[in-house]
Amino acid sequence: MERSRAYESLVRTHGDAVLRFLRRRIDPQTADDVFSETMLIVWRRFDDVPEEPLPWLYVTARNCLRNAERSARRQWRVAERIITVDPPTDNVDPGPDEDPRADCLRAALARLSATDAEVLRLWAWEELGPPEIATVLDITTNAATIRLHRAKKKLRQEMEAPRRPTGTTTKGGER
Amino acid sequence: MNDDDLRALMRQADPTTGDPRLDDARIRRIVAAAERDDLAGTTASAPRRRRRLFAGISLGAAATAGAAALIAGLVATPAIQAPGPDEAPAACQAPTVASLQEFDTAYEATATTVTGENVTLTVTEVFAGTPGTTLTVEQVQEDTGVLFTAGQTYLVAATDDFISPCDSGPATDALRQLYTTAFGTSSGG
Hints:
Chain A is mainly α and about 180 residues long. Chain A has helices at about 1-25, 30-45, 55-70, 75-80, 100-110, 115-125, 130-135, 140-160.
C-alpha cells in the first residue's frame, strides 16, 4: 500500500509534466499511449526513481517514445499517427493574445537541427536547467550549457534572418 | 531579445498550451493499472541502493516471482538507461585540446576585483578571439564553489558571454600547455 500511495503521489505531482513532454513531441493519441506505457515502467522501476524525479521521468518517457517510433516503422496504424520526433508545431492554435513574433519563432525553431531544437524545448517547455538537460540528454552539464547557449544564439539568428538558408548562420571566426 | 524574452516567446509556441491538466480519473486509472501489473516490484529482487523518494513515506517494494523478473527486465528496458543523480554524467570532464577548440575566445586574465556576482578580469594574454583588455563577467559557478578569486590568474575559454567552467581554470603550467596546443602561441593582452 505504501508503494501504491507513493506512486500515486508521484503521478499526481509529475504525471502532467510527463504527459506534456510527450505531447510536445508526438501527436496526442500516441502521446497518451506512450504515457501509459511510461507510467507502467515507472511503477515497475519505482525503487530507481531518484529524489529529483523529473529528468529521470523524461528519460524514461523519451526511451518509450523511441520504442514507439521503432514500432511505428513496423505498424502502419501507428505510423499514420506519429508525426515526427519534432513537435507538431503547425498544429498550434495561436491565441488572440499571442505575440506576433511567435510564428517567426516556430518557423525558426523548425529550421534548427534536431539537437538544437530539443535542447531549447527542454529549456523553455520543460523548464530544465543545464544539469537536468544534461541528465535527459546523457551529456555533461558543461556540454549542456554550451549546447543551450549555442542553440539560443542560433534561434535568435534564425529569427532575425528567417529566409536565410541553413548553413550560413556561422559567423566568421567561430569554430 | 534576452533569455527571459526568448523563453517567454517559446512558451507561447508550446503545443500543449491550453491542454487540460492530467485529471483525477486518469490518475486513478494509471494507479489502478499499476496495481494490477503482475510485474510490479520485480526490480527489487536484486540488491540495490534505496533512494528516499518522499519525506515520510517508506518504500517497501516487495520482491515477486523470479520468472517475472526476467520479463520485467525485458519490458523495462527503455527505463534501464534512465539515469538518476548518482548515475548522472560528471559535471565536468578534464579539458582537452578538442574541447578547448570549441570556443572562439581564449585568454589569460587576472581577476582584479570580485564584487558579488561581478568579476573584473584584466587580460594579460590572448590565445584566440578579441576579448579586449578589461572585461566584466559574471562569476562562474563550479561544483566546488566559484571559479574566480580576486588576485588570481586564470586561463579562460569562452564563446560570447559564456565562460566554460570546465575548460577554464587557474593558470597552471599544464592548462597553459593545453591552451597553447589548442590555440597556438599567445599574444600579449
